[in-house]
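Lab notebook: predicted structure, single chain.

Context: the supervisor wants predicted structures on file for every construct in the current expression panel, including those that have not yet been purified. This is the next one on the list. No modifications to the sequence; it matches the entry in the shared construct table.
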Amino acid sequence: MYSIGKFSKICNIPVKTLRYYSEIGLLNPSYIDPVTNYRYYNYDKIQISKKIKLLKSCQFSLATIKEFIESPDHTQWQSILEHKMDELNNQKEQISQQIEELSRLKAKIEKEASIIPGPLVSSCFMEHRQEVLVYTIREKINVTFIDQLVKKLFDRIYAFNLEVTGKHMAIFHELDLDQKEVDVEFLIPIKGTSQKEDCAVLKGGTYACLTVKGPYSELGVGYERLIHWVNKQHLTPVGKAIEIYDIGLVSSKFNMKDIQPDLNKHPSEFVTKICIRVIKNDEDSQN
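Prediction complete. Output recorded below exactly as produced.
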């Protein structure tokens, strides 16, 4: 006979489970030593354990399995097993249908993805930009609420009756992908003086630039290409990169009373310029 530990390994059933089966009378030990209280199982119990595992895997309850093992009425149990087989076959057909439907959906998604063009990224170029007065708003927010921050900027522009003189821009000071938070600053060129509250001067100088045509989610491609090019040209970035929204976030002919994101544009039509002020490496000591 086998000790409970050996029997557990042979049958691949935890010792704790064997003790529980013994408590409910499902699988009793063949012999219990009256002195040591050790439990022992003979070979026949291995066959019973196999039946228990099989019936359990077929979703029979332990109470039903106990009845099955103890009942001498094989005819009754043949009927029950046939019913369970029919039930499992039905589940099998349902699962097969679900797999087919998922496969069709997967193929459809792959087909749609293949016809969606990727972002069109221009070649990198240098550009001299004049310093410009901007009205700014900066907050650390969840990325989900970026549109609301843009709307807040537009509302203030209208409320303060500021005259917009150029495309609006954004600077992402910090991005926490784990928390989905961004420290973002939106800027829009205005006419006036820097004495106004929440106004600043965006520095002029030499900027490395490129444009990305496509959704904002693809701008990362542009950032990578621009930084690689800047390094290759032996230039040193100064400050954070600026996103300038040429087409997409605001209609080109907006009404001051209705300044809002341009929802009529498809994301594939968005055009964003990414710029970063640079200096030559030999200018580092002078700036």
